[in-house]
Design a protein that fits this description.
With about 375 residues, the chain is α/β, with parallel strands linked by helices. It has helices spanning about 15-25, 65-70, 70-85, 100-110, 120-125, 130-150, 160-165, 210-220, 250-255, 275-280, 285-290, 300-310, 320-335, 335-345, 355-370, and strands at about 1-5, 30-35, 45, 50-55, 90, 110-115, 155, 175-180, 200, 225-230, 240-245, 260-265, 295-300, 315. The chain has 15 helices and 14 strands. Helix 8 (about 210-220) crosses helix 13 (about 320-335). It is globular, with a radius of gyration of 21 Å.
């Protein structure tokens, strides 16, 4: 069995993508396409043939110009899909300028297709488009997304809520879907005695956090310190905080493990369309819990809030209601030992391990045989 894994614009060691490379290379040969900004030749190591695809780093211009500039990259990857010999096409993202062609050519060639859906594509794709153009984009992408799902033999989602919403618009059976959240890489044996009275905000992508600012300032007044890891958000510039730049994974987990709470609350890029946020289970959510740190989650983040509520893993807040949110956090801090016990009890559910890997491989093999 040979699997062509399309990482598209993900870098080589993207956690979710590279996990599939490592797992599937144990049962077959893997051809792995990933993005690079340097001149890297293809090479082979073990059961994996690496296919780095160079792209010009273009962050300037409108969303549509950036899309237009993506065409050479998409054509190069499409040629790989159309000509390479493989049994399974594993897509971690569609090709932005030709979103259906890879699925169609693979299907015509008699290949099996696995579609790993990291985001809610109808809304996440060209997210900054608003008004009529944003509305038309979402409607168009919903039709394309439904067709992609129909052409796929197995569709993998990050949460049940995202899967269930997507299936409302397409006539496929749930048996052709699978849920793989963004599991943490490995379990952290945290030391509760090293915990600081600190709130940590993790991430490398700047999110809008205007609503959270007043809450953070109020908590600082209550004796909490505030740490930002991976980015420095200008909105918090007038609030006392410690900024820690990007860290390697193990170092980041060590820093998270020292905090009392991890804040996962921010505004959507486009308030018209929120499903990509509501149904997300992001890396920082799993990493925080596996690092032994309770989470503070925005109440509109449905998938995260459900797990926090069901398993007792932290606090659910409405950041617009500062006093109520502050009270909930302070109450949780007074009940901290019980929350830590819940995290210790459920930690294994949030980390990738051999059993989850074997279940993933089994599900891929079942899809191939169907």
């Amino acid at each position: 069995m040979t699997i062509l894994i399309i990482g598209y614009t993900h870098d080589k060691y993207d956690k979710r993508v590279f996990r599939t490379v490592q797992a599937l290379s144990k049962v077959g040969k893997v051809i792995y396409q990933y993005l690079t900004y340097a001149d890297e030749p293809p090479y082979e190591e073990g059961n994996v043939r690496y296919f780095p695809t160079k792209c010009v780093d273009n962050r300037e211009g409108s969303p549509l110009k950036k899309l237009f500039d993506r065409r050479p990259l998409d054509k190069k990857i499409y040629r790989l899909i159309a000509t390479e010999e493989y049994d399974v096409l594993y897509m971690h993202h569609f090709l932005a300028t030709i979103p259906l062609k890879p699925f169609e050519i693979a299907k015509r060639r008699g290949k099996k297709i696995v579609y790993d859906i990291h985001e809610y594509h109808p809304e996440n794709f060209l997210e900054s488009l608003t008004g009529l153009s944003g509305y038309l984009k979402v409607k168009t992408m919903q039709r394309i997304f439904s067709k992609q799902l129909e052409l796929s033999d197995l569709s993998i989602f990050v949460s049940e809520e995202l899967r269930d919403d997507a299936l409302q618009n397409v006539n496929i059976n749930k048996e052709r879907t699978y849920i793989i959240p963004n599991y943490a890489l490995k379990k952290v044996n945290f030391d509760k005695n090293k915990k600081k009275k600190e709130i940590v905000y993790v991430g490398k992508i700047t999110r809008r956090a205007e609503d959270e600012k007043k809450l953070i300032a109020s908590l600082v007044d209550c004796g909490f310190s505030f740490r930002i890891i991976g980015m420095d958000v200008e909105i918090f510039s007038d609030i006392p905080h410690v900024y820690t730049p990007f860290l390697q994974y193990e170092e980041m987990m060590e820093e998270i493990s020292k905090a009392s709470f991890s804040l996962i609350s921010y505004n959507c890029e486009n308030a018209q369309y929120t499903k990509n946020y509501d149904f997300a289970l992001p890396n920082k959510f799993f990493d925080s819990i596996v690092a032994g740190t309770p989470v503070i989650v925005k109440d509109s983040f449905v998938s995260m809030a459900k797990q926090v509520r069901d398993l007792g893993l932290g606090v659910i807040i409405n950041p617009l209601n500062v006093e109520e949110s502050k009270k909930r956090i302070l109450d949780a801090y007074n009940n901290y030992e019980n929350i830590l016990k819940n995290i210790e009890k459920h930690q294994d559910k949030f980390v990738w391990n051999k059993d989850k890997e074997q279940e993933f491989i089994k599900r891929i093999e079942e899809a191939i045989k169907s």
